[in-house]
Design brief:
Strand content: over 45%
Low-confidence stretches: none
Helix content: under 10%
Number of helices: 0
Order of helices and strands: EEEEEEEEEEE
Number of strands: 11
Length: 115
């Protein structure tokens, strides 16, 4: 079992920045990738960014150049630095951890982008 706890969401104006954090605990050694999904009202959940244990990253096209995913393995924490936020980025952001055969998600943190 893996437990994930997110923090860092909130309200920001368009063009602003936020940094999300997610701390993992439990069966840490079983994790081979960590990342972030998001889900906006009325839309399907989508992968935003993910980083595997070798440091390879993948981003959804709409955030490339604006969002950066990073991991602190010593702290079992993954971060999502979000810059130049747009109204369309508003969603509940879910931390995720991929293990062999199973995915885990955190409880989600709300990101609101509004003037």
């Amino acid at each position: 079992q893996v437990q994930l706890v997110e923090s860092g969401g909130g309200l920001v104006q368009p063009g602003g920045s936020l940094r999300l954090s997610c701390a993992a605990s439990g069966s840490i050694g079983s994790i081979h990738a960590m990342g972030w999904d998001r889900q906006a009202p009325g839309k399907q959940r989508e992968l935003v960014a993910i980083m595997d244990n070798t440091g390879n990253t993948k981003y959804v096209d709409s955030v490339k150049g604006r969002f950066t995913i990073s991991r602190d393995n010593a702290k079992n924490t993954v971060y999502l630095q979000m810059n130049s936020l747009k109204v369309d980025d508003a969603a509940v952001y879910y931390c995720k951890a991929n293990t062999v055969g199973r995915e885990y998600w955190g409880q989600g943190t709300q990101v609101t982008v509004s003037s």
